[in-house]
Every structure is written in C-alpha cells, then in structure tokens.
Amino acid sequence: MRLLAISDLHLAHQRNRQALLEIPPHLDDDLIVAGDIGESEEQLHFALETLGQRFRRLLWVPGNHDLWTVGKDPLKLRGEAKYRRLVDICRQHGTLTPEDPYLRWPADGVSPDHLLAPLFVLYDYSFRPDSLSFEEALPWAAAQGIVCSDEYLLHPQPYTSRQEWCAARVTYTEQRLSEAAALDMPLVLINHFPLRRDHLRLRRIPRFSLWCGTRKTEDWHRRFNASVVVYGHQHVKGTILQDGVRFEEVSLGYPRDWDQNRGIAPYFRQILPHP
User: Fold this and answer.
1) What CATH number has the domain bearing residue 25?
2) How far apart, in Å, are the Cα atoms of 200 and each of 48, 127, 162, 194, 237?
3) What's the number of domains the chain is made of?
4) Domain range for residue 76?
5) pLDDT tens digit sequence for 97-144
6) pTM for this one?
C-alpha cells in the first residue's frame, strides 16, 4: 500500500481529461489530489468518479481554479459558499477534505503511522519583495503583464478580500494543526499552494508569486512536526529537502507541461512509505 499524490489535473483541457481515463488501477493505493482539478462541478464529479474507481481512497484540497465562479456555473456560488459546495461533492464520492478529521495512515499496525492533514490555505499577496507594500504589489506584477485570473474569478464572499479569507483559514488551520501535533505523530501537510516563498520556481513569470501563498505558513513544517509537505500550483514538479522535511511539488499541469506519450500515471509522486 502506498500514498501517492498529484495536483493540477486541469480537466478543462480535453487531453488531460482523456488521459485520466487511461490511468491503470491502483486499488491498493491511496491518492492525494492537491487542487486545480478543473473549473466546474462537472469536472470535479468526473475526476472523483474516475479516480475513485482506480484508487482505494482519495484526499482532496482545493486549488484556485476549483474555486473560480465561471459563466458555465449554474449556481454562480462565490467564495466560501463555493468552497462548501465542493466539499459536499467530495463527500458524496467518499473523498476526504480539509473539513474532515485528519486521517491516520496507514494504521496497519506495522508501518510507522503518519497523520494526513489536508489543508485549505489561500494567499495574501505577501510572497512579494520586502521593499514592496501591498498597495504597490499588484501594479508591480501588472507592469510585466502578470495579472492572475483569480482577480476576476475567485471571489472572497462573505469576506471583504482574499487576504481576509486567507487570514481566517490560517487561524482555523493553525488551531487544528496544533491539536494534531500534540498527538506526537509525524504529519503530512497537504495544500495546493506552496507553504514557503523560497520554494517558488517561477523563472518565466516570477511576479506571479503574489498569488502563490502566504508567509504565515513558512514555519509550519517545523511547528507542526511535518514529515512531508505536498503541494502543487506552480506546474514545476520537484522535491526539496529542508529542515529534515521533504517538500513535494506534485503538479501535472496543462498539456504543454507534461509528456503526453507517457500518460498521467508516471507523474504520481510517492509520498509514503518514504521512497
């Protein structure tokens, strides 16, 4: 039994959708899906049904694309209401979410136990140069033609801003992680966005960093006894070792970001047991 992970399936792209259907069964393995499945409820249902038939259990966290309110969304839900709707869909498919109790893994009485912690923590534009204020940050990015679609499609209601929503999620998540860390069990932290600014790999579009996380999470791997941190968002797959913790960027990405001749299966990253 293994714990595998992938993110950024982006099923709005037909090639990614077709490749998902070609994944062979992994019926003894669990799978983390770390956000950006798609941009509609239909795409989320499709992914969870398809993957649910191929894996023993699924864990999900939302990405920014998942939270978009787009024209084809019949309910036009925004912000927190949109997120809660996605949680409900996941529960319909038996998929664990950031609103569920953290999962002890593998709980087989043989392997060392970990606690799997799916997180939903947004961004607050603090992944910016120290010399820039928040008011200067968006014009700074726009000066190089960088404006994330979230500015038009990811709404924060009932919060007044994405920063306020992010702060609320940080407070909520810190409380849960503090309780989990008291169990003295290594954690696997699972978030769509990177937890650390120094782990960004945005060589082509460095000013996109504004939409990539919050500095409030940069010490979480130490504070909360993390063994592994799983994330995506950047479409730059890789492993970073820091402070004795393994950070895994597990994104697939748009069709241009992966080798379509290989299919999706080789892009699953093994999280546990430690490879």
Assistant:
1) 3.60.21.10
2) 28, 9, 20, 7, 11
3) 1
4) 3-272
5) 999 999 999 966 566 699 999 999 999 999 999 999 999 999 999 999
6) 0.96
